[in-house]
Amino acid sequence: MTTAPARPAINHAARTRGRNAVLTVITYLIAIAFLFPLVWMFLAAFKTEAEAFASPPVFVFTPILENFQNALPSYFPALKNSLVAAIGSTVLAFVLGLPAAFALAVYPTTRAQGTLTWMLSTKMMPAVGVIVPLFLLFRNLQLLDTLPGLILMYTTMNLPLVVWMMHSYMTEIPFAIYEAAKVDGASVAQEFFRIALPLSTPGMAATALLAVIFAWNEVFFAVNLTSSDAAPLSVFISSYKTSMGLFWAQMSAAAALTVLPVLIFGWVAQRQLVRGLSFGAVK
Amino acid sequence: MTTVAHPTTTTASPPAPKRGLRLTPAALIWPAMLYLILTTQVPFFMTVYYSFFRYNLVIPDERPFIGFGNYASLLTNPQNLQVVLNTVILAGGTLILTLLIGGAMAMLLNRNFPGRTLLRTLMISSFLVMPIVTAVVWKNMLLNPVFGFFSWVVASLGGQPVDWLAQYPMASVIAMITWEWTPFAMLILLTGLQSLPDDQLEAARLDGASPLQEFRHIVMPHWTQAIQVVVLMETIALLQVYGEIYGSTSGGPGLATTNLPYFIYQKAFAEYNIGLASAAGVITVILTNILAIYLLRMINRTNITNKGG
User: Fold this and answer.
1) Are B1 and A281 a contacting pair at CB < 8 A?
2) What pLDDT was estimated at residue A246?
3) B207, B140 in Cβ contact below 8 A?
4) What is the pLDDT of residues A146-189, one digit of tens each?
5) B273: helix, coil or strand?
6) What is the mean pLDDT of chain A?
7) How confident is the model at residue B101, as a pLDDT?
8) What pLDDT is recorded for position A12?
9) Chain B residue numbers touching A113 (CB-CB < 8 A)
10) Could you tell me the pLDDT band of residue B11, with boundaries at 50, 70 and 90?
11) In this structure, are residues B235 and B91 in contact, taking their beta carbons and an 8 Å threshold?
């Protein structure tokens, strides 16, 4: 992705400068409005339950850590499941997807282009179109409420992303390098392990980050294929939608612990986000 | 879309490796393809198969073939029409709002001002938040009729407290999902704006174009592709919205916020009506694909026009 230099504001007249200042204030106001629900949630995580429920709302208070302590015992098992499912599915998607991306990038044929489009098209398959047979299949194979089952589904979700993104990174490797290797008698495997993989490490990092975020945030398969043993964070948080919803401060603490890692990942990888989210269609 | 072709290799087959593993490009692609076929195409055909049976998990042994019976009962029940309509209103309403707000925000952020990069980074936060967190936080802490923040705002402005999710269920859900998806639109549209060459705008200004003309004739044509990408990706995602509804309204009150994915979840996992749920799943897949294919064609057409012009 090229970083377009910020267009210099045209400050020929004081009037433009004044207009610019107004626009900047508006930008800040909209951004604050958008961030408010999150800020409110993070604040509530440090309030007492009474303060969290207070109306009119309390803005100034003495922060406490009790909510986090109360949320942690049920948070940790879900965290473990989320981590295993997110990382496991990302690793599996890489094992399956990297060789495919490499072959499609280095040996592009008309069929390869079709294959790539087909892989992307599997993303158009709504989960509800496959959930019924998968649920029955999982039940018969005893995969319901197990981490391997969840990993299998998240791999399906992340595999097209990995193939598509890594393909776009691998096509950026100068082709002359491969040709030089071929002249030296390198095998396909050597090209893959010695050239393609080392030269696309930054792309792999960005892709892995995105895949982990998507698996971490997934709800549909989590809710329908797990119940307790393998329940990830999304299922844990959904327990607050009913009876536990009476504990706002504790819910906020649990939610904060759940979204914070993803927020940090996303902020760090924001430039790569565009590429991953639009499948390279906009650069 | 990026199509990168290496002119020299279209027909070249890889040289046979002298020793060790025999890897051909096809052998590298097949594992991924096979996996996707097994986990998406095969189950989908099974869904199609189940949709022709009266099949309830409560009575698993009786599974009579009823042809298009499930489809007929889905399409003739006026209640289900509302579910389809809800799905379209939810996706369409959110899409329009995210394009308008995201577009405005992209234009505002595409200027030089202090804190621009930080603001842009922070603005993407709501997109990264887990849908179920969005749902429980909005439902409890913002939309609650008695203690919710929005009710307090309304009350302090002299209004009556509002039970948002009961009185305006669809609007509340759309607001919530718009909050989540606006950063996506903003991010893609901002990238589109930033790739607009400066000299084009300079030239237009020298020719005396008004800001409105500048926007219509230079920014808009350039922006079209980014807009189309947002429309395509959001359409696919928004037709599948589930977590937000599951976590906030559970499809209610009544059927007010039940969309197709939530409807299928209820039919399959609350009523165990596998046949009917499968038929609804097939309809959702068809609906998504018709829209996606139409939108993809549109994007490809614009791509060709842009390259030709």
Assistant:
1) yes
2) 75
3) no
4) 999 999 999 999 999 999 999 989 998 888 898 898 888 888 88
5) strand
6) 87
7) 96
8) 58
9) 3
10) very low
11) yes
ipTM of the complex: 0.86
Please tell me the distance in Å from B289's CA to the nearest CA on chain A.
7
CB contact under 8 A, A102 and B28: yes
Task: Note the helical H segments in B116-259.
Answer: 116-123, 125-128, 131-137, 149-156, 164-167, 169-194, 198-206, 211-214, 220-238, 243-247
- Measured between CA atoms, the residue of chain B closest to residue A44 is B141
Task: Quote the minimal CA–CA distance from B42 to chain A in Å.
Answer: 9
CB B255 within 8 A of CB B83: yes
Place of tokens 């649920």: A135
- Cβ(B268)–Cβ(A128) below 8 Å: no
Q: Which residues of A touch B303 (CB under 8 A)?
A: none
Q: How many CA atoms lie within 13 A of A172 on its CB side?
A: 14
Pick from A64, A114, A27, A240: nearest CA to B133: A240
Contact B127 A131 (CB under 8 A): no
A99, B125: Cβ pair inside 8 Å? Answer: no
Q: Which domains does chain B have, with CATH numbers?
A: 81-308 (1.10.3720.10)
Minimum distance, in Å, between the CA of residue A26 and any CA atom of chain B: 8
Distances (CA, A) of B200 to B50, B197, B222: 57, 6, 11
Looking at per-residue pLDDT, the higher value among A3 and A52 belongs to A52
